[in-house]
Design goal:
single chain, 344 residues, alpha+beta, Beta-Lactamase, Heat Shock Protein 90, five-stranded antiparallel beta sheet, five-stranded mixed beta sheet, 13 strands
Length: 344
């Protein structure tokens, strides 16, 4: 019998899971070595501990309720958090009521399994699925602009043979290729930001503006700074802000002017269009929200996603003189958007 007991103890100690037995007062009376190791407690400390003592304060009522359910119903399963020698972990606890031959309750036994990585993987998969749901809309939205540029440039080139039109068409085709590559990488990897390096805001802002059909709009770049960013993602951010300004500024009495500048903790893009009503400012970054009959509602969502991927926050205000001003700044949990150097 003693050898059998030793074999049982060693078998339970070999488990990666916690094994435990509680008496009818929900006090710990038997356990395997995994419990000692996970909480750095010796046998004298563990014996007689209540079932909820191992877990974070907020989850203790959950454990108490699960124990009550176990005694009433015969079994239970619950997930709770605990501070352990391996950091904060999420544990799935199972329990089954123990009774004697007459049905009297003796206590309960169960297993505690670490599901921290499993739950994190499930959350990653859920986020990836959400991104994939938006992927088709993002692709169609962001490809529309260079397709329009390509179509117009080719028509002009066909009519006039102007080399500048051919160059504009080539630039649009290259932009489409870059977008397809990056969006496919996003779909496969779920990463918005990969290649962070110094990016000159003035150069990128002007390059993006030149590639778009901005009609009679005018760009003013009032900065010589560079920031640490993924250049392709930042280009996409500016492209969508410019497009938003041109589409909603169309038909205004005054010519559209878009200004790019910097502030201490970030940068801004402001326009002289009609502006955004107070009632809409909390919704403009929602996927699918648009006030344009021909719009898809993805543009400012993309802006918000790219900013968040860099650890920035985007806000919208009314600049002096009317219009809309989108500012991107470091989030409350981050440093200011890092300036790489001054570009002269």
């Amino acid at each position: 019998m003693d050898s059998d007991r030793t074999l049982l103890d060693r078998s339970l100690d070999a488990l990666d899971d916690i094994f435990y037995v509680y008496d009818d007062r929900a006090r710990l009376v038997y356990w395997n070595q995994r419990l000692n190791d996970l909480f750095a407690l010796d046998d004298a400390d563990l014996y007689g501990m209540a079932a909820d003592e191992f877990f974070v304060e907020a989850d203790r009522p959950v454990v108490a309720a699960a124990v009550a359910e176990l005694f009433d119903e015969g079994e239970t399963v619950v997930e709770v958090r605990a501070e352990t020698t391996e950091g904060r972990r999420r544990l799935q606890l199972t329990g089954r009521r123990l009774t004697d031959d007459d049905g009297a309750i003796l206590g309960f036994a169960g297993i505690g399994r670490d599901v921290t990585e499993a739950r994190a993987a499930e959350q990653r998969l859920e986020r990836q699925n959400e991104r994939l749901d938006e992927f088709v809309g993002v692709v169609s939205h962001d490809l529309r602009s260079p397709l329009g540029v390509l179509d117009g440039a080719l028509a002009l080139a066909e009519e006039t043979g102007d080399p500048a039109a051919f160059e504009r068409a080539r630039h649009a085709a290259e932009r489409m290729e870059a977008l397809i590559d990056d969006l496919l990488a996003l779909a496969r990897k779920g990463e918005w930001v990969e290649n962070v390096r110094p990016v000159a805001l003035d150069t990128l802002a002007r390059s993006c503006w030149t590639a778009l059909d901005t009609e009679d709009g005018r760009l003013v770049v009032d900065t010589d700074r560079a920031i640490m960013a993924d250049a392709n993602r930042l280009y996409q951010l500016f492209e969508n802000l410019y497009r938003n300004a041109v589409v909603h500024g169309r038909g205004e009495d005054r010519p559209l002017t878009v200004t790019v500048g910097t502030v201490d903790d970030g940068f801004f893009v402001a326009d002289t269009g009609p502006g955004i009503p107070d009632s809409a400012r909390t919704r403009v970054f929602e996927t699918g929200y648009t006030t344009d009959d021909a719009g898809t509602g993805f543009g400012l969502t993309i802006v918000d996603q790219i900013a968040k991927a860099h650890g920035w926050e985007v806000s919208v205000t009314d600049p002096a003189g009317g219009g809309a001003r989108f500012a991107s700044a470091a989030s409350s949990s981050s440093e200011a958007i890092p300036t790489a150097h001054t570009v002269r």
